[in-house]
Amino acid sequence: MSSTSPMLVEAICLDQAIFDSSLAKQRWRIHSKFAHSFNIQDETRQHLAVIASDQMGYVPNGIYLHPADFEKIAEEIQIDDLLLIQGLSVKFPKSQLLLIAHTYQSFQNELTAGLRDSIWDTYVTEIKKIKKETGYQEPLADVFTKQNDFVHSIDQLCSEEFPWQRRGLQFLIGRGPGLTPSGDDMIIGHLAARLLLGNRNQKLESYLRNKMIAVNDLTTDVSKHYLLCSIEQRFNQSILQLIDALSCSSSQISEKIQQVLTTGHTSGADFLVGFTRTIDYFKEEKHG
After folding, report:
1. pLDDT in tens, 139-152
2. For residues 229 and 240, what is the distance between their CA atoms, to the nearest angstrom?
C-alpha cells in the first residue's frame, strides 16, 4: 500500500519569534478553530500560535496563509489533532506547511523619547470622539471620568503599592466573556502604556507571569498567550503602530486608534481603556 505525499503549503508571512527554539521542540495540537484562523498549542500548554488567512492583523506567534491554502488545511483538521513543528515546517495529518516566508516583528524595544503633552492632547481629543462601547457596556470616551470596578482596578495597577497592584490583577484577570476577556485586554493595555511611558514595573510583571504559568484556569488559553506576550513587550501590530504614532509627532493617531478598535468585538476598546486610563493616571500624577 503506497503512501500519499503530503500537500505542501507555503506561509506568506509569519512572526520572527516562530523560529525561537522553544517553539519547535514540542508536540502540538489543534487547540481551537474559527472562520479565518485556528490556534495550535504545545503539549506544555505554555505556547500558542495562530494560523490564519491574510485577512487578520498580525499578532504574536502568527503564521499567515493565502486564503485558499488556509481553507485546504482547515478542512482536514479537527480540534485535538496532533501535529509537529520541526525545522522550517509544520506537519499536519495530510499537509506540510513550510515556514519560508517574509517575517515581521511582534517585539517593541524600550522607548526613550517619552510622550509629549501635545501628542497626548491630540490622542485625548480623538478618544473622546469614540462612541464604541467597552466590554462593560459603557462608552470608551468616558474612560477619563468614569468610576467603576474595571477603571478602579486599572488605577490600582498604577499604584506604587504592590498589594494594590495585586488586587487590581485579581479583579481583572479573566473578567468578562469571550476568547480574550475584557479585564485581560485592559491589563495588556496597561502594560503597553507603561512601556510607552518608560515606566515598566518588574515586580508586577513577574507576579503576573508566575500567576499565569502556575494556574491554568485563571483565564482562557488564548488570553493567557497574549498576556504572557505583553509581559515580554510583544503585541499585535496595530498596538505597536499606535505606540509608534504616540512616540513621535504624528498625524496618524486617529487612524491607528481606529485600527486597534477593529480587534475582536470589544477587545480593541477594552485594550484602549487600560492603555488610556494608565497614561492619564501617570500624566495627572506628574502634573500634581
Report:
1. 999 999 988 999 99
2. 13
Q: What is the pLDDT of residues 198-208, one digit of tens each?
A: 999 999 999 99
pLDDT tens column, 93-146: 889 999 988 999 888 776 656 788 899 999 999 999 999 999 999 999 999 998
**What's the rounded Cα separation, in Å, for the pair 172 and 185?**
9
Distance between CA atoms of residues 224 and 218, nearest Å: 8
pTM of the model: 0.94
Establish how many alpha carbons lie within 13 A of residue 279's alpha carbon, considering only the half-sphere containing its beta carbon.
25
> What nine digits make up the cell of 67?
486564503
Do residues 153 and 183 lie in contact, with contact meaning Cβ atoms separated by under 8 Å? yes
* Cα angle 180, 122, 59; round to 5: 30
Cβ count within 10 A of residue 199: 12
The sign of the torsion formed by the CA atoms of 279, 104, 54, 5 equals negative
Contact predicate 95/76, CB 8 Å:
yes
What does the block give as the cell for 101? Answer: 516566508
Q: Cα separation of 127 and 269, whole Å?
A: 10
The pLDDT of 37-43, averaged and rounded, is 93
